């Protein structure tokens, strides 16, 4: 994977994103070690590369993962992205940890792997909520980077976030969609950030002070567990399971190839 990344890097203006092993999602120390190993391998294979300037490590936004982000950013200068993120509490701790990005999932990952599955409660509002929270409390380093989008209308509805993850199929569809189709007069493609009433409502509901959860594990866990009756925590657990399943499959492919 590092060799593949080195082939991709020359074609990027920004950072290459690499995710750690999801089986380490509940271990701060293993996650830190994995991130350091990734950076080391880049520089081992490409000695002239300063990997910290070109690589961002994606880490599940469990409590343990967010603490790993804090250490990596603060002590090693390694850029991190808090992924599998579904709630404001996670976004708040990610910002306090100094993460470069958060990846709020608009839809559960099952929409990409289970035919006919539709997320009954998409999380577009968390993307808006997180970005407004960052702006309100001066977290200028951390950017919201929504992920797991399924349509160009979802992409357009989040126009206004700092960054966004768009799959190749949706990029192609956007490329063939004409300007009148996505004009401000078409409700299907209106940005939530252009809805003044909605933005004001979200802003008014945000905490007046930063949540300050990064050193309060019990409070973070309870707030996250209680968010939407536990629905968002369940979504995160499902996402980690999907990634763990994919990790096992990938290891199987590599093992078969090496035995070749």
Automatic annotation (TrEMBL):
Q: What's its catalytic activity? A: D-sedoheptulose 7-phosphate + D-glyceraldehyde 3-phosphate = D-erythrose 4-phosphate + beta-D-fructose 6-phosphate
What are the EC numbers?
A: 2.2.1.2
Q: Name one Pfam family in it.
A: TAL_FSA
Entry-linked InterPro entries: Aldolase_TIM (IPR013785), TAL/FSA (IPR001585), Transaldolase_AS (IPR018225)
Which keywords are on file for this protein? Pentose shunt, Schiff base, Transferase
**Pathway noted in the entry:** Carbohydrate degradation; pentose phosphate pathway; D-glyceraldehyde 3-phosphate and beta-D-fructose 6-phosphate from D-ribose 5-phosphate and D-xylulose 5-phosphate (non-oxidative stage): step 2/3
Matches recorded under PROSITE patterns: TRANSALDOLASE_2
Instruction: Keyword check for Plastid, yes or no.
Output: no
Q: Which residues form the signal peptide?
A: none
Q: What does this protein do?
A: Catalyzes the rate-limiting step of the non-oxidative phase in the pentose phosphate pathway. Catalyzes the reversible conversion of sedheptulose-7-phosphate and D-glyceraldehyde 3-phosphate into erythrose-4-phosphate and beta-D-fructose 6-phosphate.
Name of the protein described by the UniProt record: Transaldolase
Q: Which organism is it from?
A: Lithohypha guttulata
């Amino acid at each position: 994977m590092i060799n593949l990344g080195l082939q991709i890097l020359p074609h990027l203006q920004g950072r290459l994103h690499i995710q750690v092993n999801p089986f380490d999602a509940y271990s701060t120390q293993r996650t830190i070690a994995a991130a350091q190993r990734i950076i080391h391998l880049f520089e081992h294979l490409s000695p002239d590369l300063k990997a910290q300037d070109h690589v961002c490590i994606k880490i599940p936004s469990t409590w343990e993962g967010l603490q790993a982000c804090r250490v990596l950013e603060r002590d090693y200068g390694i850029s991190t992205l808090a992924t599998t993120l579904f709630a404001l509490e996670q976004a708040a701790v990610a910002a306090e940890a100094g993460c470069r990005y958060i990846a709020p999932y608009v839809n559960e990952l099952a929409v990409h792997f289970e035919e006919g599955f539709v997320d009954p409660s998409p999380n577009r509002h968390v993307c808006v909520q997180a970005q407004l929270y960052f702006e309100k409390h001066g977290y200028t380093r951390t950017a919201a980077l929504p992920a797991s989008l399924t349509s160009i209308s979802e992409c357009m509805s989040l126009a206004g976030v700092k960054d966004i993850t768009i799959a190749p199929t949706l990029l192609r569809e956007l490329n063939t969609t004409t300007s009148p189709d996505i004009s401000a007069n078409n409700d299907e493609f209106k940005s939530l950030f252009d809805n003044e009433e909605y933005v004001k409502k979200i802003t008014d509901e945000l905490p007046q002070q930063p949540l300050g959860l990064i050193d309060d594990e019990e409070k973070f866990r309870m707030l996250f567990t209680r968010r939407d009756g536990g629905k968002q925590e369940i979504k995160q657990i499902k996402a980690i399971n999907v990634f763990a399943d994919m990790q096992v499959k990938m290891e199987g492919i590599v093992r078969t190839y090496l035995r070749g």
